[in-house]
C-alpha cells in the first residue's frame, strides 16, 4: 500500500518501504533501544511479503487509515529505560521525520514494548507486552 501526495501538476507515491526505513532510522538512534521485537506474525508476513516483492522490517507495520497514517512499532529495550519517556521521544522523532522528509502531517505512532534486556544477561525479562499507544499519553 502506498501513500499519495498530490498537487495540481504532480503526483508522488510514497511506498511503505520508505516510511518503514525513515521510522527505523529514528528508532535505531534512540537511547535505551535494544532491538526490534520479532513476533510470529512478523515471520508469516515476511514470507508473504517476499512473494509480492514488498519490503518489511520485523517489529514494524504501517496502516493507511482514512484519518491518518498509523505506524506500530514493537521493540525490546534495555533494563532501566524510562519507557514512557522513550515512547514520547519515539513518537515525536518519527512524526518530525515524516513531516520533514515526506510532508506527512497526520501520523499516529503506537509504541509496543515487548521485552526488557538486562546488560550481561542473554535472556529477556518479560515486560508483559506493555503497550503505550497515543491514547495513553
UniProtKB/TrEMBL annotation:
Pfam families reported in the protein's UniProt record: Asp23
InterPro entries listed in its UniProt record: Asp23
Organism: Veillonella magna
Family label: Belongs to the asp23 family.
This protein's name: Asp23/Gls24 family envelope stress response protein
Entries under PANTHER family matching the protein: HYPOTHETICAL CYTOSOLIC PROTEIN-RELATED
